[in-house]
Structures are given as structure tokens and as C-alpha cells.
Amino acid sequence: MADTKREIERKYEAGPETRLPDLTGVRGVAAVVDQGVAELDAVYYDTEDLRLAAASITLRRRTGGDDAGWHLKLPVSPGTRDEIRAPLEDDVPRSLAALVHARTRGAALVPLVRLRSHRDVRHLVDAEGALLAEASTDTVRAERLAGGDGGTVEWTEIEVELADGGDPAFLDTVHKRLRKKGLKPSGSASKLAKALTDTGWRPAAAPEPDGTAGARILAHLREQADELVTYDAAVRRDLPDSVHRMRVATRRLRSAFRTYRKILDPAATGPVADELKWLARELGVDRDQEVLAERLTARIDALPVTLLLGPVRGRLRAWAGAGRAGSRGRTLAVLDSERYTALLDSLDALLADPPLRPAAGKDATAVLPRAILKDYERLAVRIDRALALPAGHDRDVAMHEARKAAKRARYAAEAAAPVLGKPAKRFVKRVKAVQQVLGDHQDSVVARDTLRDLAIKAYAAGETAFTWGLLYGQEEARAAERERELPKVWAKAVPGKLRRL
Fold first, then answer.
1. What is the pLDDT of residue 16?
2. Were 419 and a residue from 54, 231, 364, 428 both cysteine, which residue would form a disulfide, CB within 3.0 to 4.6 Å?
């Protein structure tokens, strides 16, 4: 079974004769304890075209030291990675291969680089003997096993890794001491990255936007495509909010295809957009279940104990558990499907050879505002339609349609914000407020349907349905409140300076 460790570290360049400076004077460090020397032997795996390395992901099989086994490291932020471990075995563990499936897509993972490190380890401890960080001087010999210029390279580096649960600010304190001693931060994020660079690998550079509408929208699409693939691993690990973030990436891609169809040919983007819609719908099964369970739990927690009649919490837990198990399995099956892999391939192909239309070559500040304003006008029509209807099912449906239009307008402005600046950012903020009102209204509609079902089941089981009816009434009142609030929030959602750009 794989386990996970959050790795927060700093790396520094060092010469062959460099040794770790004395760190006993660093604030909080009571002693530096010699832990001896470890001989580490690691083989790093990747696809032949280095898809993992391009995403700053490392996968290795390491022997020696106290953590021998398979290690998959996924970037979180500069200097921070999640290390997922699996027991030592000959082949790449299936659990780790699944986490990089969105990158490899069936391509074989082959031995790429062998790193042998002579590691001199010191522990930085406080007055109680608790570990603050591990500092090591690593003498490394790297051998390229496949691709590149081949051969070997050698170097020495100093690495300081924060103890589990430690304060990252401590590494800043250590950093100041090491800089005073003349050490420079490493130019490579990992040993593998340095080994690859020194043996001839040069990662492909992303195109620089040139001020045209096409360049800006393509940059946005590439960002969202990368978000989609990055959150694949997070969803598989069942990390909080990961399904939501992945689903948002699919929506932003689809929204950009539709809003900026004068920049990208819809005949080419349409099939990809259809598949993104399918993926968002499948992810929604898991996400919607999660959101609804959180909402109903919060409603129950807010009630006085005297109004909780019958096994309300137990019934909700059983409902949530059953739904979660089914939706979770369905989500993983989707991510393992050939259809999903084909979607990722199609998206990559479209971005590699984008179907640009004449407007793509024009100034972004001239083209993008017009597209955003069209989305705003579409939203205005749907808001007016919803407000004109009497309360009831038809209004609920109309408000849900307005919510989807609000998301599209917001995403359109977000894509253009790096070029249009403050006017677009203000518009995003105002439309987001409209979206939140409409979203809470729709969540109330869905919650009421579920509460009715729970009440029916409780009654059939001989339980009182009082609490479920009470919660239903609260949700009904909440929806009415949002309907009254909408005109005020909508009145502020004016495109403003976007009209004059």
C-alpha cells in the first residue's frame, strides 16, 4: 500500500570539497547530530519522450538508506512536493503508474537515469531533541541510461529537508545562514532535473504570447489543459476539492471554445468540447454528491438538538456513504477509460496545431472585449427571463440556465484578464457574485429533492419525517431569499470600461 509524505526542502550548489557549515547558531537549533553516511542507488523511470520530467514529476526505484522502495514525487509548489511511496519490487507499482496515467497514457515507463549518492547526513534538533530538519551533503554520480548524450555527470550539493509537520519559515532561517557562508541555491529543482540537463535534455519552452487574441486564448487553453491533467492525480488520491478543480478546468476549456469561436474554428473545437462536456458530467456525479452531503450536514448541525427527531444523522451518513462509494468508483472508472485517454490526446493535438481563424491575428484588446460582451448580453437575457417568471419549477429551471451563462461570462473575462487588466477583473468579481447567488439557489433546489426522498424513506421505515420536513422548509426559504437578492446583485454586474476597450 502506498503512503504519502509532504516533502519541503531547499537545495544548494556545492563544490567537491564543500562541507555543511556549522548550523548550531541558527535560531532554534540546539544541536547538530551526526547520522552517519548512507549509500543510495536510485533508478529513475519515465517515458522515452520524458513526459514526467517535462511536468517536474519524478518516479524512482531506490535502494539504500532507511526509505528504500518506489517513490513518486508530484510538485505542489516551488520547493514542495508530495512523495508517494510504495514497497520495493521489480516493476513499477500499479498504484504509482495509475497516478501518472494522464501523462503517460499507456506509454511504457523505462529506466532513464541511475543516480548513486554518497549522503553525509546531519539532524538539526531543538532543545528537547525534536527533529527540525535533516541536512545532508550529497556527492552524486548520474548515469544516463536512455536518450540524451549518454555518459555520466558528477556533482555535490547540500540539501535541507524540513521535518514532518515543521514550520517552513525555519528553512528561511537556515537559508540565510547558508547564503552568508557563500552557498548558492541550486538551479535545478531535483537531482533528476540536473542529471537530465547536464546530459543534453532541454525541455520545450511554452510559446510567448505576442499580444494577439489567438496567443492569449491559446495560453489560457494550455493552462487549463495542464490543470486538467495535474488534477487527475489529485482526484485519484481523493484529495479535498480535487474533483471540483478538475471539473472547473473542463468547464473553462469548453467556455473558451464557445466564447472565442471567432478565434478558434468551432468545427475543430466542437468534438473536443463535446467530450469535455461528457467528462464534466461524469465528474459531477462525485462532486455533486460531496457538495450536497456537506450542505445537509451543515443544516443538521445548525439545528437545536430538540428538533432532531429520529435517527437523522445516521440516515444521512448512510445515504452519503452509499452515494460516495458509488460515485467514487464511477469517477475512477472514467479516468481509466479509453475514452478519457482519447480526449486528452485530442486536446493535446488541437493545442499543438490550433485551428486559428482570422480574428486570432488581431490585437487582443480589440477582439476579446467584444466576445465577453456577447456572453454578458446572453446572461442578461437569461436573468430577465428568470425574474419575469413566477416562483416555481419554471423559474428554478430558468435560474439554473442563468447560472450556467454567468459561469461562461466569468470564465471568458478570466481568460482575457491578463490582457485587459482591471476592467476584466472587476467584471469577473461582479459576475462571480451573481453566479454565487444563482448557485446557492440551484443547490437549494437539489437539496429539496434529496430531503424529500430521505423523508419518504424515513417514513417507510417507521421513523418520524419531522426533521426532514423542517429542513425542506428551510431550503425553500433559502431559495426565496436568493430570488429576492438576485436583482440587487445583478444591477451591479455591469461590464463598465470593457465597453470602451
1. 83
2. 364
